[in-house]
Amino acid sequence: MPRQEAVARAKNFKEVALGYTPAMAAEEAGRCIQCPKRPCVAGCPVNIDIPEFIKAVRDGKMAEAVTVLKKTNALPGVCGRVCPQESQCEAQCTLLKQKAPVAIGRLERYVADWERENKAAMPPGAALPPPTGKKVAVIGSGPSGLTVAAELAKKGHAVSIFEALHVGGGVLMYGIPEFRLPKEIVQNEINFVKSLGAELVLDAVIGKCDTIDELLAGGYDAVFLGTGAGLPMFLNIPGENANGIYSANEWLTRTNLMKAYLFPNYDTPLKVGKKVAVIGGGNVAMDAARCALRLGAAEVYIVYRRSEAELPARKEEVENAMEEGIIFKFLTNPTKFLGDGKGWVTGMECIQMELGEPDASGRRRPIAKAGSEFVMNIDTAVVALGTTPNPLIAATTIGLKTTGHGTVVADETTGKTVKDKVWAGGDIVTGAATVISAMGAGKRAAADIDKYLMGKK
Amino acid sequence: MLTKDEKGERIPLTIADSDAKAGTVTIVFMEVGKTTRELGLLQTGDSIMSLTGPLGLPTHIENYGTVVCVAGGFAVAPVMPIARAMKQAGNKVISILGARNKELIFWEDELRSVSDKLIVTTDDGTYGRKGLVTEPLKEILESGEKIGLVVAIGPSIMMKFCAKTTQPFGVKTIVSLNPVMVDGTGMCGCCRVVVGGQTKFACVDGPDFDAHQVDWDLLAARQRTYLEEEKQAMENWQCQCGKHS
């Protein structure tokens, strides 16, 4: 897959992966042997008919490829860019043990992009069934909410999606950077969901403007909770509230949602120093670090308490980050932030770690090496340790069961919660995970909600 | 939280009044920077892109006996609904309204209408009593009258000094903290304040907090984070306005 060259791309917010040309797409699609076992389909959290859409690409039948893809996946432009295909469909590919798995993700992206650029060439979509008269409230317009809305709208139910922010998309808009997932693509996917008949209500903070019980009393037959995991975790070490120290959520929201990289043309600023330390090792940490570079930082560090092997981020994102010149400091844990006495951070005291026995997560436990403290001189820090669900919904909804981590308890297969007429899926149930697993949960919940609404449960 | 247009920033402003029948909310703002000046140029019939609320926790209303409400400048807007609710809950309400000068005194009659007593001060003496709001506040506390609660809302320096004034008297004092905010729903932590040694998000845990527990220095420091950018935005905007006029 052609990419923008590392040095140049670290200075702009344009997409890094440039996408296949038609010739490349046809060639790659031709590699698929259309094997009868089709293990790739089961490897996909939303069970896309992968061999079918690939065959259509191989045969140059692009409109058909789009139709096959969109039958099961409402957000192909998103998935083709941010799914960890290497651990999903491609990991199951029959060709995995031979040469290399078929680049299913790249092909998905190619098809979605083709559709966006060739709307006129697409036949009109299948007619929607007659309205069922049932109303569903979807809370949150992130990947799980959008998926539920699309699936239920396709069945003829009246869906209203309630979004707290002033623009739809959830983490697709505020979290994932422009250079990994262009916001224009996200809005295009949302428009598709709306074209199926779903209504998007912005600036609606459920739990404040209306409660779940008020929605149910007001005429909604079912509610789906897709509010994600938007509460940031901090280190809780001294000095963490100094100026120049951000949660990754704030850093990414200012940058991607509010377009701080275009200040002062856009009004929201972001203070980026010369030496930025991003604490954490997941996809969010990589995103934050790569944004820092593009925002003008001279030196950007990833500070992670375990070693490279334990990094939870996608290998592709780690590679991209390293190529762009981000410095990885492994086996390092911050203990304290230092300041200039006027409220600004000037340094981060760290301690070196070594790996011991595996902990509850199955990864080797990091243990501090006594006497190995040192100071990193930094003027900006981004804390990317992870997120948990925003407590607002649980706090304002009677009868919901939650866990100690703040997640909502829901059935794994159906997404049904213990509260009557309420389902949940995505990060609010699992804790911070992936876009595609949220979509998978959305599909399962939508199927169950449909069964319930049509009296088949 | 309010956003003027697609390129605008999200800013927190208080809903000072509302009329459910008419379907309106009233928001009062001071023109201090680019966004508020742009808002000031809007005419009746114009629209803004986004308004969401109410956010944060509602002010706790109770019959404390006697409540002193202190409003600094345009903060009379968030004080108004509180004073009104306290009065309706059976409190005797003593209000103090202070501003730098006569021009900045706002909603004086409105505040008087929900108070048993209103004292107006201006720093320069151009209206009402010359001096700062803390002076009549101290006098009320020194008079021996039993005060159940003090509510003080205004610039952070004013709230800080109200807190310092009431502390020796041990009177419960509530302030409404005003750090920089982005989403206003608890997802980013920009609005972190420290109260009683603990980090809180002003947007979801507040904005009301116990004044005697607030780390005022931290609040002031964090409010200064974007001074440079605010200045730059204003200069850019004024320059552009100059070109169009």
Write the layout of secondary structure elements.
The complex is a heterodimer of chains A (457) and B (245).
Chain A: H1 6-9, H2 22-31, H3 39-43, H4 50-58, H5 62-72, H6 76-82, H7 89-92, H8 104-117, E1 135-139, H9 143-154, E2 158-162, H10 171-174, H11 183-195, E3 199-201, H12 212-217, E4 222-225, E5 231-232, E6 245-247, H13 248-257, E7 275-279, H14 283-294, E8 299-303, H15 315-323, E9 327-329, E10 332-339, E11 345-358, E12 364-368, E13 374-377, E14 380-383, E15 387-388, H16 392-396, E16 422-424, H17 427-430, H18 435-453
Parallel strand pairs in A: 1-2, 1-4, 2-3, 4-16, 6-14, 7-8, 7-14, 8-9
Antiparallel strand pairs in A: 5-15, 10-11, 11-12, 11-13
Helix pairs in contact in A: 2-4, 2-8, 4-5, 4-8, 5-8, 6-8, 9-18, 13-14
Chain B: E1 2-3, E2 15-19, E3 24-27, H1 34-40, E4 50-51, E5 66-72, H2 76-88, E6 92-99, H3 108-113, E7 117-122, E8 129-130, H4 134-142, E9 149-153, H5 156-166, E10 173-176, E11 192-195, E12 198-201, H6 202-205, E13 208-210, H7 216-223, H8 227-244
Parallel strand pairs in B: 5-6, 5-9, 6-7, 7-8, 9-10
Antiparallel strand pairs in B: 1-4, 2-3, 10-13, 11-12
| CA radius of gyration of chain A | 23 Å
Number of distinct beta strands of chain B? 13
* Coarse shape of chain A: globular
* Helix-and-strand structural type of chain B: alpha/beta
Strand segment count of chain A:
16
Distance from N terminus to C terminus of chain A (CA atoms, Å) equals 46 Å
Q: So how many helices of chain B?
A: 8
Seen as an oligomer or otherwise, the chain set is: heterodimer
Largest sheet of chain B: 7 strands, mixed
User: Regions of chain A with pLDDT < 50 over 5+ consecutive residues?
Assistant: none
- Main-sheet strand order of chain A equals 3-2-1-4-16
